[in-house]
Design brief:
Elements (H helix, E strand, L loop, with lengths): L2 H6 L6 H17 L16 H14 L4 E8 L6 E7 L11 E6 L7 H15 L5 H9 L1 E5 L4 H8 L58 H13 L3 E6 L8 E8 L3 E2 L3 H14 L9 E6 L5 H9 L2 E6 L12 H12 L1 H5 L4 E8 L9 E4 L18 E5 L3 E8 L6 E8 L4 E3 L2 E3 L15 E6 L7 E6 L6 E7 L4 E7 L6 E6 L12 E9 L2 E9 L2
Parallel strand pairs: 3-4, 3-5, 5-9, 6-8, 10-15, 10-16
Antiparallel strand pairs: 1-2, 2-4, 6-7, 6-9, 10-12, 11-13, 13-14, 17-18, 18-21, 19-20, 19-22, 22-23
């Protein structure tokens, strides 16, 4: 049974049971003087107070794998915008990929909020129970922003206007909320082709605001994405006027064409769409969106390199009957988990370090075949010097650069059909060349292909004198193979491992570690062998 059918078979607690978990917390909020929102929708839908109380209850019940944060406050009424992180070692910023899910950019699109809450419940309550969920939580930092637009959400849940779209920014500054004049569309407020998207008129439901990131709501997403650098971001929508039941991906740009990562972005959107089903059991559709709009997905992709996607749930119905919400949530969440699987590849990952100190570097990682001046440089993270690039199977040229350092280029980098190819880079300060043996930091530069079948080339940099060996270990620490190696006059070298042990016998498929051993230091990298 695959992980999707396994998850589908879990009996997720009912909304009544989940509300029972947080009733005491809600009462505490009321006692503390925070009145609950008036509630005009079916009771299946959450109010802002219920979201806060339920998230607090989840964080209290699962402190080892959840961390609840107030990421910011709404533009006008100052209501909390919460983020929940789910991961093992949750209080540590680990060297792991990040995936972000968010709901309710638009006030009337309430189903995205419910999907986020459903997934939070499913991931936390089944950690340690369902193998796939346990693996995701152990390997990935998963973030949720369930309710991004609490002020607009209040307009809908109070019954003032259940078709309202924007926040409640006081556009004319008169201190009174006016449905026809006030509000900014948070999704048109991002700083990527901002002036070309939405509308400049207050009265438009697509009013983009006075400037990019003028609204607290879009700032919350911006700040979290800059801090966490997600590999994927899935923005849930369910608009009243929409084709619906589809995945929008970035992008098509008139006069320029499709995005430079089109092959991989389209394949991921197609995979997500194929895993997400409508009530009639047919799959969603993948559709390109336009680059000429300041939307979340365009900013996420164009500026940060995050593959931002928009899921439009349902067609021509943004608020389904309460009795149908659970089924929508289950179907959408099962599809959404595809992104957690896709983090494992195919793609490219590794670290960039300073050749003199061994410290991590913020550097540009340019996949030449997927490069364009229309997108911002793709940078490594500051803490670990780590990068993640989702790709499709193929051979690539990869260039690493940073101000004040010599550029390093790798040719014929093979990305297989499965897994992540590990490619590290060591950059040397400009003008220093490769240092002498006394100061050089030994390191494995790349293992390619990885995963591999047959043989793989382990490239390294090391002192030109002294013994150099490359050892292969199993995950349990058992020595599998040991090979002598040499470095050229520039300190560069490589050796081929054919997936054999000390006795010359072929090893079994699995994960191994290649360890470079020199007189000035050691380094190791994971190697995956597939028979």
């Amino acid at each position: 049974m695959n992980r999707y059918s396994t998850i589908a078979g879990i009996k997720t607690r009912s909304i009544v049971a989940r509300r029972a978990l947080v009733i005491s917390a809600v009462l505490c909020l009321v006692v503390a003087g925070v009145a609950q929102d008036a509630f005009a929708l079916h009771e299946r839908y959450h109010t802002h107070a219920e979201v806060g109380a339920e998230l607090a209850a989840v964080a209290a019940a699962y402190p080892e794998i959840t961390r609840l944060e107030t990421l910011g406050y709404s533009t006008t009424d100052g209501q909390a915008i919460w983020g929940l992180k789910i991961s093992d070692n949750v209080d540590i910023d680990e060297d792991e990929p990040v995936v972000l899910y968010d709901g309710l950019h638009h006030a009337e699109e309430v189903v995205g909020l419910e999907v986020c809450m459903w997934m939070i419940d499913e991931l936390t309550s089944n950690y340690g129970v369902v193998d796939s969920i346990t693996q995701w939580v152990d390997d990935i930092e998963i973030w949720f922003i369930p309710l991004l637009n609490p002020d607009g959400h209040w307009v809908v849940t109070s019954g003032l206007d259940t078709t309202y779209r924007k926040n409640i920014h006081d556009n004319n500054g008169n201190g009174t909320f006016e449905l026809d004049l006030d509000g900014v569309d948070p999704n048109y407020n991002y700083d990527f082709n901002w002036a070309e998207g939405g509308s400049g008129e207050w009265t438009s439901p697509y009013y983009r605001g006075t400037a990019p990131f003028s609204e607290n709501e879009s700032q919350v997403v911006r700040d979290l994405c800059i801090a966490e650098k997600p590999v994927f971001a899935l923005n849930y929508h369910s608009p009243l006027i929409s084709m619906g039941d589809c995945i929008y991906y970035p992008w098509y740009w008139p006069t320029i064409g499709f995005c430079p990562d089109y092959d991989v972005v389209y394949s991921i959107a197609l995979g997500l769409a194929g895993k997400t089903t409508k009530l009639d059991d047919t799959s969603y559709t993948a559709i390109y969106g336009y680059a000429t709009a300041g939307k979340a997905r365009n900013w996420q992709y164009g500026v940060l390199g995050t593959i931002g996607l928009t899921m439009e749930i349902m067609s021509q119905m943004c608020i389904p009957p309460g009795a149908d919400v659970d089924e929508y949530c289950e179907r959408v969440s099962l599809g959404s988990y595809y992104l957690l699987d896709r983090v494992y590849g195919p793609g490219l990952t590794g670290h960039v370090t300073d050749g003199t100190t061994g410290d991590p570097l913020v550097a540009e990682v340019e996949v030449i075949e997927n490069s364009s001046d229309e997108i911002m440089p793709r940078l490594t993270g500051a803490t670990y010097g780590r990068y993640w690039r989702m790709l499709v199977e193929g051979t690539y040229t990869v260039e690493f650069s940073s101000a004040g350092y010599d550029t390093q280029t790798f040719y014929d980098v093979v990305v297989g059909a499965r897994g992540l190819t590990e490619l590290d880079a060591v950059l040397w300060p400009t003008g220093t060349g490769i240092p002498d043996a006394e100061t050089r930091v030994a390191g494995i530069r790349s293992v390619s292909p990885n995963p591999f079948c047959g043989s793989t080339t382990i490239s390294f940099i090391a002192p030109v004198s002294g013994a150099i060996t490359v050892e292969i270990y199993s995950v349990s620490g058992r020595l599998i193979d040991r090979m002598s190696a040499t470095a050229s006059s520039t300190g560069e070298g490589e050796i081929i491992w054919k997936g054999r042990d000390l006795a010359g016998e072929s090893v079994s498929s699995g994960v191994y570690f290649a360890r470079l051993v020199t007189e000035t230091g050691t380094d190791q990298q994971k190697v995956v062998f597939i028979q």
